[in-house]
Amino acid sequence: MFKNYLIIASKSDKAGHNIVTELFQYIDEFKSKNIDFHLIEGSILNERNLDNHKISKYDFIIFASKHKSEKAEKTLSIHAPGNFRQVWGGGEAGKLSVSSALFNKHLFEVLNENVAKHELKNYNVTLEVTHHGPLINKPCVFIEIGSTEAEWRDRRAGFVIAKTIKDAIETFKPNKYREVAIGIGGPHYAPSFNKIQLNSNIALSHIIPSYMQPIEENMIKESIEKTFEEVDFAIIDWKGLGKSEQRDKVIEILEKNYIQWKKTSNIRK
């Protein structure tokens, strides 16, 4: 499925630099496994700072980055890049990068396993909804350390992320029996979708949060079109989508486009 992987971080991003530093211990292994990493100048959120010629040589791109939040919570997070409406730090409004539901699920599972194994108990492991750039034409994912400089520089967190990247790449085997879905609704850290990604047979790619209301047809279509695998259905965070008229509008869009849908509450997890 994916044979060549490139891990990208920014020299000015303390968390990204931390992760890549920890990845150096695997450099000899990486040479024989078609895995490479690349430190760039400027922000990785803006595609203008990326070397598209270099990216074109790889099948999958992993962006190692810092995460910032107002609550300054300790987090290790994973998300797909893209802008549903407003542009956050790169990309284009209404455009998403390609997301692999199967790889994202595997990466999330491995991250949870490594956090438990290495007893990084004070960090919250979470998905984030799809947000910010860059906009690239290769399947990609962000894996991040948050949310303050203390965490960005935390060597144990950097080690866990680096080992997660290595382990996930080495053990990834696409499971044809997985069901693939996009998520609609809920808050930024997507608690309902966290449970589904970790505890069910469903693999999630893009997630459209409720704060993107009104959720429009192009958002749903773009999420499906920019999922690497064929999407089986959409999952609606029923309580997290707001008022009944908002849910009705989303259902109308899905059914108009012959897209099957389920509620998060009806998923066994």
User: How many helices does DSSP assign?
Assistant: 9
pLDDT < 50 stretches: none
Give the N-to-C terminal Cα separation.
27 Å
Please identify the top-level CATH class of the largest domain.
Answer: Alpha Beta
Domains, number: 2
CATH architecture of the largest domain: 3-Layer(aba) Sandwich
- Named CATH topology of the largest domain: Aminopeptidase
CATH superfamily of the largest domain: AF0625-like
Tell me the helix content: 25-40%
Instruction: Report the sheet-strand fraction.
Output: 15-25%
DSSP, total strands: 12
* Average pLDDT over all residues: 96
Main sheet specs: 6 strands, mixed
What does this molecule look like?
With 269 residues, the protein is α/β, with parallel strands linked by helices. It folds into two domains: 5-171, 3-Layer(aba) Sandwich (Aminopeptidase); 179-266, 3-Layer(aba) Sandwich (Rossmann fold), CATH 3.40.50.10700. The protein contains nine helices and twelve strands. The strands form three sheets. It has a six-stranded mixed β-sheet. It has a four-stranded parallel β-sheet with strand order 10-9-11-12, with helices on both faces. Strands 5-6 form a two-stranded antiparallel sheet. Helix 7 links the parallel strand 9 (179-184) and strand 10. Helix 1 packs across helix 6 and helix 4 (101-117) packs across helix 6. The longest helix has 17 residues, at 101-117. The protein is globular. The mean pLDDT is 96.
